[in-house]
Amino acid sequence: MNSAAPVRLVALREQAIDVNEALDALDDPASGGLVLFVGRVRDHDQERGVVALEYTAHPTALTQLEAVCAEVAAEFAVSGLAAVHRVGRLEIGDVAVVVATCSAHRGDAFAASRALIDRLKERVPIWKHQIFTDGGSEWVGTP
């Protein structure tokens, strides 16, 4: 495994996410598998059309995202890990979140990536405000 720290990139940002940044952060000749998940803004939620999303993060969100990343890195046999979530207003097709892991073997990378996105969604206080085509809106994931 690469001797660099497994957690290579963790960020919350208002600017567009560049998927290549995560790929570059996980460049590792010892890793045979790299799994990348890209979450994008879709044009619907259930039966309602969506115009845009607005993500808001609690002031502790970055610290909690860092903790989740460290936990996943310690639990799974990964040589690298990256997680970036967008905040602010996003339009249809925009990248909202990127998580990626690399490992010597694909199975470990798949399992770690799945755990990372699931725990991020469950535990990092980032809230989604959906704006619908019918003029309505809805908050998702608020306490």
Automatic annotation (TrEMBL):
InterPro entries for the chain: MoaE_sf, Mopterin_biosynth_MoaE
UniProt xrefs under Pfam families: MoaE
Domain of life: Bacteria
PANTHER family xref list: MOLYBDOPTERIN SYNTHASE RELATED
Record protein name field: Molybdenum cofactor biosynthesis protein MoaE
Native species: Nocardioides dubius
